Amino acid sequence: MSATPEDFPATRVYATRWTDNDMYGHLNNAVYYQLFDTMINGWLAANAAVDPAAGEVVNVVAESGCRFFAEVGFPADVTVGLRVARLGSSSVTYELALFDDEAVCAAEGKWVHVYVDARTRRPTPIPADVREALQVLAGATRSE
């Protein structure tokens, strides 16, 4: 993959931990998903005031995936990049990338959130303030 951290409107550096490594000496695949989930929900909390425990409208993961290109392991800092690939009426598709400490793309991820009514769990439009915040991550990508 040729992506760089500059391709993403939001990035954050995370320190790896000894417990993140698997028996082969590199980050366990589940750690990539944890980092992606933390990046998305941390960004939403900081930039869209999303409170998943108290909102009337919440997001649920409808799809996630990861492609691996290079090994990363402890001790290393990694950078996670986040952008919006598609912004629908009740769903958002995120693209993510994890970069090693030399800015080499080690993995790319895809994450789909569907916004639902917290009580009925039925899809509902993305709240206007959340949509406005997500536009920052959408950049030049298509929005519907």
Automatic annotation (TrEMBL):
The keyword Transport does not apply. Its EC number is 3.1.2.-. GO terms for molecular function: hydrolase activity. It comes from the Bacteria. InterPro entries: 4-hydroxybenzoyl-CoA_TE, HotDog_dom_sf. Keywords: Hydrolase. Gene3D superfamilies: Hotdog Thioesterase (3.10.129.10). It is an enzyme of class 3 (hydrolase). PANTHER family: 4-HYDROXYBENZOYL-COA THIOESTERASE FAMILY MEMBER, NOVEL THIOESTERASE SUPERFAMILY DOMAIN AND SAPOSIN A-TYPE DOMAIN CONTAINING PROTEIN (0610012H03RIK). Belongs to the 4-hydroxybenzoyl-CoA thioesterase family. This is Acyl-CoA thioesterase.
